[in-house]
Amino acid sequence: MFKAKVLIKRRKTILDPQGKAVEIGAKHLGLTNIKNTRIDKYIEFNIDTNNKKAAEDEVNDYCKKLLANPIMEDYEFTLSEWTPSEEEVK
Amino acid sequence: MKKPKFGVVVFPGSNCDHDTYYVLRKILDLDVIFLWHKQSSLEDCDVIILPGGFSYGDYLRTGAIARFSPIMNEIISFANNGGYVLGICNGFQILLEAGLLPGVMIRNESLNFVCKDIYLKTVNKKTVFTKSINGKNVMKVPIAHGEGNYFADENTLKELEDNNQIVFRYSERDGSITSSSNPNGSVKNIAGIINKAGNVLGMMPHPERSSDSVLGKTDGSLIFKSLVNNIFN
Predict the structure, then answer these.
(1) Cβ of A54 under 8 Å from any chain B Cβ?
(2) Which residue segments constitute the domains of chain A, with CATH numbers given?
(3) Torsion A77-A78-A81-A87 (CA) sign
(4) Using CB atoms and an 8 Å cut-off, which of residues 4-23 of chain A contact chain B?
(5) Within a domain: residue B26?
(6) What is the CATH number of the domain that holds B137?
(7) For B60, which DSSP code?
(8) pLDDT of B65 above 90
(9) Which of A31, B113, B127, B170 is most enclosed, with most CB atoms within 10 A?
(10) Contact, B71 vs B35, CB < 8 A?
């Protein structure tokens, strides 16, 4: 089994109103050096196969078709071998 | 005159499905049915409406999960074969995610959920959805969304303009297009666009909420009437 950790980032050319709003909070906190706050997405999941190539293909498919919108987002991921914990098996 | 049969798709989280059904059946006296998102038949409908709401709780991105509901395969083939599809609010977001219309929807510039009446300028009155709006300079139609900030890259915008695909723009009461009349930050005040073939329209404002005279405004009904008057004629 593999564990995928996916980071989905909105392209820099696309306005991130959430990041902008949060940065206003930073200014109010007195954190004057904070610039270009961007709020992106981090997604984790397991892939139930022992074939790394198959796992990669499936993650790419998942990202391209559903997790990320290729018009406005880019994604990157890491894949590591994973033994699920008892909780995850349940 | 032969009238089209309407199908209103119901996704988990749709909440304007009954309003739309009500307007078509009770106000306009048309043939309309609900289509559950898990069914695969469109039951001979001539117009498919993807209604407003929060399909799948707006999780991940608005419309991103509904786009993979079983009925969407049928709707995509239907649209690609010239079938008429109208996406309202969340329905518009689903059409963007499905790739039936270009561009994306992001969060309103103000970060607020905006629910109010706005003025809408119809900039393309030649579509089957808008031909009957002829006499009106602007329509008063409500919006209700948190993510209606339409965005597309320069090339896409140029293509939309060159092909006359921008159908509705947010405007002032007198029809002028200004930044103060833009409720959500949409590029070029875009409120609704159509595909190149002219059979798939997406719009953020809610025509079904301005179709019953009891509510004090009926401009939205012109869009449904336009479909009725022009699909088979």
Answers:
(1) no
(2) 2-84 (3.30.1280.10)
(3) negative
(4) 13-15, 17-18, 21
(5) yes
(6) 3.40.50.880
(7) S
(8) yes
(9) B170
(10) yes
Judge whether B208 counts as a catalytic residue.
Answer: yes
- Report pLDDT for A85: 81
Q: How confident is the model at residue B168 (pLDDT cuts 50, 70, 90)?
A: very high
Quick check: A90 pLDDT over 80? no
Alpha helices in B53-150 (DSSP H): 70-80, 90-97
Give the separation between CA A7 and CA A74, rounded to whole angstroms: 8
Instruction: Report, as an integer, the average pLDDT of B204-212.
Output: 98
Helix ranges (DSSP H) in chain B: 17-22, 70-80, 90-97, 154-162, 221-230
Residue B185 to residue B107: CA distance in whole angstroms = 9
Mean pLDDT of chain A: 93
Residue B193: which domain range?
Answer: 6-230
Rounded Cα distance, B86 and B82, in Å: 12
Q: Does A29 touch chain B (CB under 8 A)?
A: no
The answer to whether A89 faces chain B, any CB pair under 8 Å, is no
Residue B161 lies in a domain: yes
- When mean pLDDT is compared across A75-89, B67-81, B86-100, the lowest value belongs to A75-89
Q: Which residue has the tokens 């007195």?
A: A30
Residue B137 pLDDT greater than 90, yes or no: no
Q: Does residue B113 register a pLDDT over 80? A: yes
What average pLDDT does range B78-98 have in this prediction?
98
CB contact (8 A) between residue A69 and residue B111: no
ipTM of the complex: 0.80
Question: Which chain B residues contact residue A15 at CB under 8 A?
Answer: 106, 109, 149, 151, 185
Q: Report if residue B136 sits inside a domain.
A: yes
Phi, psi at B32, each rounded to 5°? -145, 140
* Cα–Cα distance for residue pair A45/A77, rounded to 1 Å: 11
- Tell whether B1 is covered by a domain: no
Number of domains forming the structure of chain B: 1
Asked if B45 is an active-site residue, the reply is no
Q: How far apart are CA B183 and CA B169, in angstroms?
A: 11
